[in-house]
Amino acid sequence: MAQHVKVVSYDPKWPEIYEREKNLILQILGEEAVSINHIGSTSVPGLAAKPIIDIMPVVRDISKVDWLKSQFESIGYEYMGEFGMPGRRYLRKGGDERTHQIHIFETCNKKDVLRHLAVRDYLRLHGDAREAYGTLKRQVAAQYSEDIERYCNGKDAFVKNLEAKACAWYERTKGAAYLFDGWQETMIWSCLQEHMGTVETDGSLPPASARISVGDFSFFAGLPDENLISGAKTLTLVPRTEDWEHEIEKVLGAEAIKAQRYAIKKEPNVFDRETLEQYVASLPADYELKPIDLELYEQIMAAPWAKDLCSRFCDGHDYVRRGVGFAVVYRGCVVAGASSYAVYDNGIEIEIDTNKEYRNQGLALACGSRLILECLNRGLYPSWDAHDLRSVRLAEKLGYHKDSPYNVYFLKSSCAELLDA
Fold first, then answer.
1. Whole domain around residue 289: which residue ranges?
2. Residue 86: is the preceding peptide bond cis (ω within 30°)?
């Protein structure tokens, strides 16, 4: 009986199914296992896929896996050996209506291991590629629902091109994406999507530890690493785990001052256009709200209180090309602004600043509203992260909802500047 080809929408239960199967596989492999990964289309949230869980264990000695054939068969797998790919051990479960596939590689086989990880991580972070691949799979599956070979051939050219792009991207971003997976932070996305920022790792591939730096922020993930902490040159350090917090305190001592920021929920459909337009219209008389152009960019970059509105961009032309923002102008001078601190695929991270002499007049509310409206018109999501409770209150007035606080560390040398902001 031929294998049916059925492509379905992403199922959030797939990671749970993987976790259950992973535990069974690790019990069999024991100390031979170096790592194990969920790969393939079911490992990519939002991607249409055949409902088959692909699992990639990496082992120390591939030849020793052959000794475990009967144990894999006892949990329902067919042991297929290399099955056309030298250096692999392939197993499948479910017969013609397949449910699971295992692809085992040796740890020294970096090419095949990293290829699978690269494609998975690339699709997780690049929505356009994910959507295009899902659409193609549905189309080809509709044509060849009873012919798995023609189905595979129908997407072969796309997959080869995808693999080439993904592997090149994986090398440029040093394989760090998986360490930050699930962290809902747009500046991390900005870096991994190669818009802004830098990524550093412990040097291994895939890495065990990584630091992403964008603007004034450094984000740490994986295993705590002293060198990544001491090498950070930003004002704010953001640890993913308590272990990183302990390491930051150990490495930097009194130079690191612990504080809290506030995550804001990312909810695309919460904004009320009418309310935002009313806030824009409430701008006091004698003040003008203008898009940030080359002239205003230069004025903003010359003002210490305002430069964070645009400073992540290479120059004014780069800002006009990739950024978006609005300035409140009074008698020819910029006195407040709302702008893209960072950009990522289909969104921005909002920065709002007001000259201290002009605060408490509703200027931040007006220009923030105008920026959100512009983002909605362009199909961009205006992400917000709050420095303090004052920022939370402004966000909530604009329609956002607070998520939860999280710990950060300010470098002592930067605290005067931050408190003055």
1. 273-400
2. no
